[in-house]
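Observation: inputs received (chain + pyridoxal-5'-phosphate).
Thought: call the complex predictor directly.
Action: predict_structure
Action Input:
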Amino acid sequence: MNSKGIANVPEAEAARAVAEAARTEWGGTTLVGPEVAAMPPLTPQSPYWADLTARHGDAALLMSANENPLGPSPAAQAAIQTAVTELHRFPDPRALSLKQAVAAHHQVSEDAVVIGHGANELIERLVRTFVGQGETVVSAWPSYAVYRLVGHAAGREVLLAPLRDGRYDLVGLAALVDLRTKLVFIANPNNPTATYVPHRALVAFLERIPRSVIVVLDEAYAELTDAADFPDSFSLLPLRPRLVVLRTFSKAYGLAGLRVGYGVMDPELVPYLDRVRQAHNVSSVGQAGALAALTDQAHVATSRRVIRQGVHALTAGLKALSLSPLPSQTNFVTVALPKNADGVVRALAERGGYIRRLAGYGLEDTLRITVGRPAENQRILEMLDDLRHLWR
Ligand SMILES: Cc1ncc(COP(=O)(O)O)c(C=O)c1O
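Observation:
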């Protein structure tokens, strides 16, 4: 670690070494730049659900990817079925109906909304659009890995402030912001630690950050929170022009497979993001399904209720196993074991239970368990109870 954030210097050195090794004999040009050369190929961290159900049938417990255990709303499913009949047509490149529905839902103007192929595409597009050469991206670690990946893929420096007790350290984050900083990403609530930044702390942070910096609040789990002091970030948008709020249909709306997300921001930013996108970035089926899902807020409310109950059940069950899970405002619970998370995850998988180990985030013996249906939460706790000798 260095004073400028974590892990930047060794990565740069590794990048140079790999790029040197990759130099071809064709006039000294390289196949890829040093940033791409230094990146490992993407290895999915969660097993693909269909492989697991093929192997374990109904006994598979798919609790590793922070999906909604209730699935998509019936209204979304019906809209998708209808949209399928028009699949020979290109999608609306403006995603106009969905954009209007999102604008009405949040009571913002239509020109403040950007629709993306998942929130991930918007994260990538924000970096590619706004972070120029020599400018930096600032975020925290462990936090959502995509900020770092897309920053590096774009050849930009990414500075990461370590979490404090599993939470964003906003003082540490602000300390990384300097004249080169263009984008700050805050995952709120945070993945993979499930903690959140409350409203007042966020406002105080925003007041400290130069107004030239674009602050992105990635609120992928916001619809699932119930903390009274969770930020009302839409109320902050008129106060700070360079604020972006990202949401997704992958979590509370149960549509992770559809790949639709959106951002709400100052309309001044929108045309720039529109320059750096594929015309048909969101499929017709995606637009139709997301639109119907948005109108079915009853399904979102049921999802929130069931997931909050699941968070409480998992938290209580883990505490009964003498563990100390972090407080969660998401659809997963994060918990450190005294040792041997690897052995526990492998033993669970043999029994058909899939949860996520967070070693890739530098949390060697920490587990992330996605909330399932009530019976699934019960079963994973029973399995863990059976395996407790592995971490004793
Ligand atoms: C913090 C955070 N942001 C964004 C995403 C991805 O959202 P999408 O599926 O819309 O790309 C996730 C999904 O795991 C997430 O945890």
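Thought: report the result.
Final Answer: The pocket of pyridoxal-5'-phosphate is lined by residues 66, 118-120, 144, 187, 191, 218, 220, 248, 250, 256, 261 (CB under 6 Å). The longest helix spans residues 297-320.
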